[in-house]
Design goal:
Blueprint: H1 5-40, E1 44-48, E2 51-58, E3 62-67, H2 74-81, E4 89-95, H3 110-124, E5 129-134, H4 137-147, E6 152-158, H5 165-170, H6 177-185, H7 189-198, H8 200-206, H9 212-216, H10 220-232, H11 240-250, E7 265-270, H12 277-284, E8 292-296, H13 307-320
Parallel strand pairs: 3-4, 3-5, 5-6, 6-7, 7-8
Antiparallel strand pairs: 1-2, 2-4
Helix pairs in contact: 3-4, 7-8
């Protein structure tokens, strides 16, 4: 039976939609499969007296414990610290509670994570280490330095989540748009993957906490770093337990005994960080004896445009212990 022109057009549209859907599904599956392979690469799970811990290690020399930010894992921590390998550091990048192969225990507080960090060091035979806490990893980095001062030779806090009185007041407010967006995406690889492709600027702003305009003005190397960070959040479903725990912890941050930190400390942030870590850094740095604060006017949570100088500052601080 002959088809009318309208029916032919409708059929063609259906076929095109089906082909497009198949192409999208195929690309999605390939991207997630590649992301899972990246996330599993070089991962080691070791049994400690605090339970199983996942990490990866590289290099030789001064131990450096790296505590990743929200949406990360051992892979994100290693990516951040890898440029320091040539400077004589033994990098130990941990998957914090609920991320990738790290289980979420009943007590998943920053203090419990700090104790688990020490259990890992004990299992690896590491007596003292420098510690870098990135973003939400700053909470357990601070607690590690407070609770185990004899084990921490130097401390660096990069765009850190931390207690401030203003944060405590904001925690009583309804969830922000960024928090609602994150909650919507957490646990669904497809939702996150789709948002990354269809609403990239919004994901950069709301998830990476960085103004899209700053990224657009950056050089090719910095834009590639942003793209790699976006892609490496996949598979977000394997990080969902950690992200949900992080979301709760971020709204229940309590004051910490910053004056008990004995390790030389460096704090770094940018004023336009979408997560407000500049105010956190300004608050905590004067309360840690001798801490040095490096603040940038622009760069967002990713510190765009400052990658090389941030690495130089970390290299010098961690090598000399301040």
């Amino acid at each position: 039976m002959a088809l009318s022109g309208r029916r032919l057009a409708f059929l063609a549209a259906l076929l095109a939609a089906g082909a497009g859907s198949a192409l999208v599904a195929s690309r999605f599956r390939a991207d997630v499969q590649a992301a899972r392979a990246r996330a599993a690469r070089d991962a080691i799970v070791v049994q400690t007296r605090c339970g199983p811990m996942e990490y990866q290690a590289a290099g030789e020399g001064t131990p450096l414990l790296v505590l990743h930010g929200a949406g990360g894992g051992h892979d994100q921590g290693m990516t951040f610290a890898r440029p320091l390998l040539r400077d004589g550091f033994r990098i130990i990048a941990v998957s914090r509670f609920g991320y990738l192969g790290a289980p979420l225990p009943a007590d998943a507080s920053p203090a419990a994570q700090a104790d688990a960090n020490i259990c890992l060091l004990d299992a690896l035979g590491v007596q003292r280490t420098a510690v870098v806490g990135i973003s939400a990893g700053g909470l357990s980095a601070i607690q590690t330095a407070i609770r185990h001062p004899d084990r921490v030779s130097a401390l660096a806090l990069v765009v850190p989540l931390a207690y401030t009185p203003d944060n405590a007041a904001r925690n009583a407010e309804p969830p922000s748009r960024a928090a609602r967006l994150l909650d919507w995406m957490v646990g669904s690889d497809f939702v996150y993957w789709s948002a990354m492709h269809l609403a990239r600027d919004q994901v950069i702003a709301r998830v990476l906490g960085t103004p899209p305009a700053v990224v657009a003005e950056a050089d090719a190397a910095e834009q590639a770093r942003v793209q790699a960070m976006l892609e490496d959040i996949l598979p977000i479903s394997a990080r969902a337990a950690g992200l949900r725990n992080e979301s709760w912890q971020a709204t229940h941050v309590e004051p910490m005994a910053l004056d008990r930190i004995a390790a030389p400390t460096l704090v770094i942030s940018a004023r336009d960080c979408g997560y407000g870590t500049y105010a956190n850094a300004e608050y905590i740095a004067p309360r840690i004896h001798g801490a040095r604060f490096i603040g940038y006017e622009r760069g967002g949570h990713m510190l765009i445009g400052h990658d090389a100088e941030v690495r130089d500052a970390l290299r010098e601080h961690l090598r000399t212990g301040g």
